[in-house]
C-alpha cells in the first residue's frame, strides 16, 4: 500500500489542484497576506528600529552625546605637563566610552594674563587658547588664522581674536599686545608678546547640537566684564577677554603656562546595540572618579560635562517602547493570521471531506492523509512565502516613504535582509500547521457538548482573568517590556472571546421575533442566523480585527494628544531663551528686540525648601520658578475644575510698586550716588550702599558701591552693576536702597552702646522727572538676621524726588561683627511669599494650603506660605517645584537684602527671532520643536507606524477571512438554496435572505469588536503612553477616542465584507440545480 500510495500521491495532488484551483488560490492569497503582514512587522522591528535608533542618536547631536573632561592642573603647570595629561585623560575617557568608538579633540588654555595698563582702574585679563577644531565653529572676518609653520620663533605669538574682544580692546590685525603674569599664572614669562593676525566671529554659540564653545572659558562671548579676578577666589571681579587663539601647538612656545586642559570625545554610536549604549553610559557616569584616581595630584580639579548617560537612557527606553508597540501589532497580526489560516484549513478540510472518507475506505492511513495534507499545505505556503518576501519589501518601502516615517530616518533596506527571510520562514511553518490542523480531526467528529463546553467557558474566564491581571500590572508603575507587549494582546483576545458569547444571544432574540412575522426574507435570515450561527473562527476573526484596528487607532490618538500636552508641560512658553549673554538688563534689550517687545523675565533655578534642601543629583533637585503671573499665560492641562489662573490668583502683589519708585539717571549705563552720613558713636563707623534698580521692564539689578565713612562729608560713590546697566528708554527707577552699617573696629559686647545713625543717599533724576515722580510712601526695616542680632532698631526713612534719608539706632559693638542691614523699599513690608507647590513636593513634605515653608534664594531663606497645590508646574514637569510671582519674589528677596539678579531665562512668543538669539549665544527651546520631536522623533514615530500597520493588517486579514468563510458557506448551502428555489422562492428573495444574514451578523460583529477595542483603548492606551524619558507622562495621558477613525474602520470592514458576500451569494443562487437537490437528499 505504501509504494502504491507513493506512486498515486503526486497525480492525486495535481488532479485536486487543477479541480480546486480557485480554492487553492484563495488559501494561497490568505497565506500571502498573513506572511506579508508578519514580514513587514519583522522589518519594522529589526531594520526599522535600527534606523530609528541611529537617527535618534544622530538627532541628539554633539550636545547630547559629547563627553567633555576639563582638567585644571596645579598652578605653575607648563606645556610639558599638559602634554602628559592629554593622552592619559583621553585613554581614561575612551575606556569609559567603550565599546563605542570616539573622535577626540583637545583644547589647552593658558591662565588669565594681565593686560597692560590703559589708564583705567582695572584693565582686565586675557588668555590664550590652542584649539585645533575651530573650522566649523568660527568664521574669519578679517585677517588670517595663525600659521603653525610660523610658530615657535622668538618673536610675538600670532593670535586670532573674537570680534567682541577686538572691539572691546580696540585691536585689529597687525596690532601687538604685551601680557604679564597674574596670580593664576606663576609659571608665565615676565612678558608674553602677542600679535593680532586675524579676527573671527564665533558661530553656533547657542546651538546645543554643536557645543564647541561650551569648552571656552567665556563660552565664546569674547568679553566678560564681571569675571572672577585671579588671586581673589571669586571675591572680586575684573573684565576678562578671549580666547586669543594661537596656532596648533604654539602655546608651548608662548611661555604662558597651562591653565586648563579640555579633552572632548564624541562617540560614534552608529550601529551600536542598546546593550553597548547602556554599557557606555554606565562607564561615563563613573568617569569623574576614574579621572581623579588616574591623575592624582597632577590635577587640582576635574570636571566632566556630558549628557550622554541621560541621552543613552532615554534612547534605550524609547527604543524598547517602540519595539513593544511593533510587537503588539505583530502579535495581533499573528492572532488574526492564525484565525484566517484555521478558517482556510477548515475550508480545505470541508471541501475534501468526502474525498478523505473515500480514501480511508480504500485503506489509506491517517498518517498518509496528514502527509498529503502537509505536502499540499507546504506547497501552498511555499508559494506564498516566495511571493511574501518582495511584497513585504514593497510594503516596507511604502511605509518608509510616508513623510512622517521618512522624516524620522527610517529608510528601506538594501537587498533582502536575513531577518526578513527568517521571519517569513518561521511564519510559514506556523501557517502550515494551521492549515493541517483541521485535517487532523477524525472524520465525522462533532463538537463536544456538556462538560467540554463547560471547560471552554472556564477557559474563557481564565483568559479574561489573565488579561485583567496583565492590564493592572501595566497600569502600575514601571511595567516590564513583556507586560507592555502581552497586556494589550491578551485584553483584545479576551474581549473578543467574550463578544463571541454575546452574539448568539442576540441571534436568539431575533429568532423569537422572526417566529411572529409573516414575511419571508428577514424572518428566514433571522432564523438561519440563530439556528446556524457563523463559525466561531470566522466570527472571532472579524471581531478581533475590528477590536484590534480600533484599539490601534485609539492608542495612536491618545499617544499624539499626550505628546502635545507633554510639550506644553515641558516648555512653559512658545519660546524659552536661557543662557542669554550679557547682564540682565542687556539681555532684556536683546530678547525684546527678538520678540518685538513681548518678553517676560523668569527665575528658573535649583533651590531648597527649609529642611528639604536638595542634596542629590541635579535631576532630583527641586526647582524655583518665578514669572509675572499676571502677564504670563501658563499652559498645560489641569484636572477638571482647576485653572492656572485660579491657582496663581493669590501670587502677585496687590499694589503697584513702581508708583513709589524713584527715577534715576542712567545715561551710558553709569550709576552714581551722593552719600553722606553721621553717627553719634565715638568709634568710627561706615556704610556700604546698594541700590536695586528696575530698567522699566521688570528686570531688577543690584548696583553696589564702596564703603563710605559716616563722618558727615558728602561723597560721590560710583555704583557697579555686574555686566553693566542698560535702560535705553530712560525708564530706570530705584526700587530699594540697602544700607550695610559697619563699625570699623572690632569691639567687645556692650562697648560703645547704641548710637544714632543717619544716612542720606541722593542721585540725579532724569531730565523732566519733576517733583511728582516717585510720589508714594517708602518703608524701612532690618533684615531678619539683623533683627535677630538686635543690632539695628527703629529704622525710619524719608523720601524725596532725588533720594532717601534713613535713620536708626545701631548697637555699635554688634555692628562690628554681626550683619547690620537696613532695607529701604518703595513697597510695603511683605507678608510670607505666596507660592504654588507641586503635589509631589507637598506629599513629600506634608504640606497643605496655608502651611509655611522656606524658599532658598541665593544666600537667603525667604519665608513663604503655600497658596495652592498643583499637579505639576510648566517647565518643571518632572520634578518637585515651587512657583512664585517674580515681583513678589523680588520683594521678599530685597527684604532680606538678597539683591542678586533673579533673571535666569526669558519667555517669548512664537514669532520671536530664534536665529538672532542663537547667533547671540543664547540657548533657545521652541515648544513647537519639542512637540514635533515628541510626536515624530525617530524612535517615537515607530509607535505610530506600528499602530498604522496594525490597522491595515487587521482590515486586510478580516476581509480575507470573510472571503474564505463566504466560500465555505456557499458550498455547504447549495442544497438548501436548491430546495428553496424548488418550493417557489424567487432567486432574489433567496439571495436577499443570505445577504441580510451576513450583513446583520457582520454588523453585530463589527459593532461588538469596535466596542471591545474602545474599552481596551480606554483602559490601556494611557498606560502604554510614556514620556520621552520612559516614565509616566506629565500630565497624565487621557484616553482619546477618534470617532472618524473608528467609523472609517467599521465602514471599511462592512463594505469589504459586503463586497465579498454579494458576488458569492449571487454565484450560489445561480449555480443551484437538481444536482444539489439529489446531494441534499443523500445527506
Automatic annotation (TrEMBL):
It is a multi-pass membrane protein. InterPro entries: ABC3_permease_C. GO terms for cellular component: plasma membrane. It is found in: Cell membrane. Residues 768-805 are annotated as: Disordered. Keywords: Cell membrane, Membrane, Transmembrane, Transmembrane helix. The chain crosses the membrane at residues 21-45, 321-348, 369-396, 416-437, 458-474, 486-510, 536-557, 943-964, 999-1021, 1041-1069. Residues 950-1059 form the ABC3 transporter permease C-terminal domain. It comes from the Bacteria. This is ABC3 transporter permease C-terminal domain-containing protein.
Amino acid at each position: 500500500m505504501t509504494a502504491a500510495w507513493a506512486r498515486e500521491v503526486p497525480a492525486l495532488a495535481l488532479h485536486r489542484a487543477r479541480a480546486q484551483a480557485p480554492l487553492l488560490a484563495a488559501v494561497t492569497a490568505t497565506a500571502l497576506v498573513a506572511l506579508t503582514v508578519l514580514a513587514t512587522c519583522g522589518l519594522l522591528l529589526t531594520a526599522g528600529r535600527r534606523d530609528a535608533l541611529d537617527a535618534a542618536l544622530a538627532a541628539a547631536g554633539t550636545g547630547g552625546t559629547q563627553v567633555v573632561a576639563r582638567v585644571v592642573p596645579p598652578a605653575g603647570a607648563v606645556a610639558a605637563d599638559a602634554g602628559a595629561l592629554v593622552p592619559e585623560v583621553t585613554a581614561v575617557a575612551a575606556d569609559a566610552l567603550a565599546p563605542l568608538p570616539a573622535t577626540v579633540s583637545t583644547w589647552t588654555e593658558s591662565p588669565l594674563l594681565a593686560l597692560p595698563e590703559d589708564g583705567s582702574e582695572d584693565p582686565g585679563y586675557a588668555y590664550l587658547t590652542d584649539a585645533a577644531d575651530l573650522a566649523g565653529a568660527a568664521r574669519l572676518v578679517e585677517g588670517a588664522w595663525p600659521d603653525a609653520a610660523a610658530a615657535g620663533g622668538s618673536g610675538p605669538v600670532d593670535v586670532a581674536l573674537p570680534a567682541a574682544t577686538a572691539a572691546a580692546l580696540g585691536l585689529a590685525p597687525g596690532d601687538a599686545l604685551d601680557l604679564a603674569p597674574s596670580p593664576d599664572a606663576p609659571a608665565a614669562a615676565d612678558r608674553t608678546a602677542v600679535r593680532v593676525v586675524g579676527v573671527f566671529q564665533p558661530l553656533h554659540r547657542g546651538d546645543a547640537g554643536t557645543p564647541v564653545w561650551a569648552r571656552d572659558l567665556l563660552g565664546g562671548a569674547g568679553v566678560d566684564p564681571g569675571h572672577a579676578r585671579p588671586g581673589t577666589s571669586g571675591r572680586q571681579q575684573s573684565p576678562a577677554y578671549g580666547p586669543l587663539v594661537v596656532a596648533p601647538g604654539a602655546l608651548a612656545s608662548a611661555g604662558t603656562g597651562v591653565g586648563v586642559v579640555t579633552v572632548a570625545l564624541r562617540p560614534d554610536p552608529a550601529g551600536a546595540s542598546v546593550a553597548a549604549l547602556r554599557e557606555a553610559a554606565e562607564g561615563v557616569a563613573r568617569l569623574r572618579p576614574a579621572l581623579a584616581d588616574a591623575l592624582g595630584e597632577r590635577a587640582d580639579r576635574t570636571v566632566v560635562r556630558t549628557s550622554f548617560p541621560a541621552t543613552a537612557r532615554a534612547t534605550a527606553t524609547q527604543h524598547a517602547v517602540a519595539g513593544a508597540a511593533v510587537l503588539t501589532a505583530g502579535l495581533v497580526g499573528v492572532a488574526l493570521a492564525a484565525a484566517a489560516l484555521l478558517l482556510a484549513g477548515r475550508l480545505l478540510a470541508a471541501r475534501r471531506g468526502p474525498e478523505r472518507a473515500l480514501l480511508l475506505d480504500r485503506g489509506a492511513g491517517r498518517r498518509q492523509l496528514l502527509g498529503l495534507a502537509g505536502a499540499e499545505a507546504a506547497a501552498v505556503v511555499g508559494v506564498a512565502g516566495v511571493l511574501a518576501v518582495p511584497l513585504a519589501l514593497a510594503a516596507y518601502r511604502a511605509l518608509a516613504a510616508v513623510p512622517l516615517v521618512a522624516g524620522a530616518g527610517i529608510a528601506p533596506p538594501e537587498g533582502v535582509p536575513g531577518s526578513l527571510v527568517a521571519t517569513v520562514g518561521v511564519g510559514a511553518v506556523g501557517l502550515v500547521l494551521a492549515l493541517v490542523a483541521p485535517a487532523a480531526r477524525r472524520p465525522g467528529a462533532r463538537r463536544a457538548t456538556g462538560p467540554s463546553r463547560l471547560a471552554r467557558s472556564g477557559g474563557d474566564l481564565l483568559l479574561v482573568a489573565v488579561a485583567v491581571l496583565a492590564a493592572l500590572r501595566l497600569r502600575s508603575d514601571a511595567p516590564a517590556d513583556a507586560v507592555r507587549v502581552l497586556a494589550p494582546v491578551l485584553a483584545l483576545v479576551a474581549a473578543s472571546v467574550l463578544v463571541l458569547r454575546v452574539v448568539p444571544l442576540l441571534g436568539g432574540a431575533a429568532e423569537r421575533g422572526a417566529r411572529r412575522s409573516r414575511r419571508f426574507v428577514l424572518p428566514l435570515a433571522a432564523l438561519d442566523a440563530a439556528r446556524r450561527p457563523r463559525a466561531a473562527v470566522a466570527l472571532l476573526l472579524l471581531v478581533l480585527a475590528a477590536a484590534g484596528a480600533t484599539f490601534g487607532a485609539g492608542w495612536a490618538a491618545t499617544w499624539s494628544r499626550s505628546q502635545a500636552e507633554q510639550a506644553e508641560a515641558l516648555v512653559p512658553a512658545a519660546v524659552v531663551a536661557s543662557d542669554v549673554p550679557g547682564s540682565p538688563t542687556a539681555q532684556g534689550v536683546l530678547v525684546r528686540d527678538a520678540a518685538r517687545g513681548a518678553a517676560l523675565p523668569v527665575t528658573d533655578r535649583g533651590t531648597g525648601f527649609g529642611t528639604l534642601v536638595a542634596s542629590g543629583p541635579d535631576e532630583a533637585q527641586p526647582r524655583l520658578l518665578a514669572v509675572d503671573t499676571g502677564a504670563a499665560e501658563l499652559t498645560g492641562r489641569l484636572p477638571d475644575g482647576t485653572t492656572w489662573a485660579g491657582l496663581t490668583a493669590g501670587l502677585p502683589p496687590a499694589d503697584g510698586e513702581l508708583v513709589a519708585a524713584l527715577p534715576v539717571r542712567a545715561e551710558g549705563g553709569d550709576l552714581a550716588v551722593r552719600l553722606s552720613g553721621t553717627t553719634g558713636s565715638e568709634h568710627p563707623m561706615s556704610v556700604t550702599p546698594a541700590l536695586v534698580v528696575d530698567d522699566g521692564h521688570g528686570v531688577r539689578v543690584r548696583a553696589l558701591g564702596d564703603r563710605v565713612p559716616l563722618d558727615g562729608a558728602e561723597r560721590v560713590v560710583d555704583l557697579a552693576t555686574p555686566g553693566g546697566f542698560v535702560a535705553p528708554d530712560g525708564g530706570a527707577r530705584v526700587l530699594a536702597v540697602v544700607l550695610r552699617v559697619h563699625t570699623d573696629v572690632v569691639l567687645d559686647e556692650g562697648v560703645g552702646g547704641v548710637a544714632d545713625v543717619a544716612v542720606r543717599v541722593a542721585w540725579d533724576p532724569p531730565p523732566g522727572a519733576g517733583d511728582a515722580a516717585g510720589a508714594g510712601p517708602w518703608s524701612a526695616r532690618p533684615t531678619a538676621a539683623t533683627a535677630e542680632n538686635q543690632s539695628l532698631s527703629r529704622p525710619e526713612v524719608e523720601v524725596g524726588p532725588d533720594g532717601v534719608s534713613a535713620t536708626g539706632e545701631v548697637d555699635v559693638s554688634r555692628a562690628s561683627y554681626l550683619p547690620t542691614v537696613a532695607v529701604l523699599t518703595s513697597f510695603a513690608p511683605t507678608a510670607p511669599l505666596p507660592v504654588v507647590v507641586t503635589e509631589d513636593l507637598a506629599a513629600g513634605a506634608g504640606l497643605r494650603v496655608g502651611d509655611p515653608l522656606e524658599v532658598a534664594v541665593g544666600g537667603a531663606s525667604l519665608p513663604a506660605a503655600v497658596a495652592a497645590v498643583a499637579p505639576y508646574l510648566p517647565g518643571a514637569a518632572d520634578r518637585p517645584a515651587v512657583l512664585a510671582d517674580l515681583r513678589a519674589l523680588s520683594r521678599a528677596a530685597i527684604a532680606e537684602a538678597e539683591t542678586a539678579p533673579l533673571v535666569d531665562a526669558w519667555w517669548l512668543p512664537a514669532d520671536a527671532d530664534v536665529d538672532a538669539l542663537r547667533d547671540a549665544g543664547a540657548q533657545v527651546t521652541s515648544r513647537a520643536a519639542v512637540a514635533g520631536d515628541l510626536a515624530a522623533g525617530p524612535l517615537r514615530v515607530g509607535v505610530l507606524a506600528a499602530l498604522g500597520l496594525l490597522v491595515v493588517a487587521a482590515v486586510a486579514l478580516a476581509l480575507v477571512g470573510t472571503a474564505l468563510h463566504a466560500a465555505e458557506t456557499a458550498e455547504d448551502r447549495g442544497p438548501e438554496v436548491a430546495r428553496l428555489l424548488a418550493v417557489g422562492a424567487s432567486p432574489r428573495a433567496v439571495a436577499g435572505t443570505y445577504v441580510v444574514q451576513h450583513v446583520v451578523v457582520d454588523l453585530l460583529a463589527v459593532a461588538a469588536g469596535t466596542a471591545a477595542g474602545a474599552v481596551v483603548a480606554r483602559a490601556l492606551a494611557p498606560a502604554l503612553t510614556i514620556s520621552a524619558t520612559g516614565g509616566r507622562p506629565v500630565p497624565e495621558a487621557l484616553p482619546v477616542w477618534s470617532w472618524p477613525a473608528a467609523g472609517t474602520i467599521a465602514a471599511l470592514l462592512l463594505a469589504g465584507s459586503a463586497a465579498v458576500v454579494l458576488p458569492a451569494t449571487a454565484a450560489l443562487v445561480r449555480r443551484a440545480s437538481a444536482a444539489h437537490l439529489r446531494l441534499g437528499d443523500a445527506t
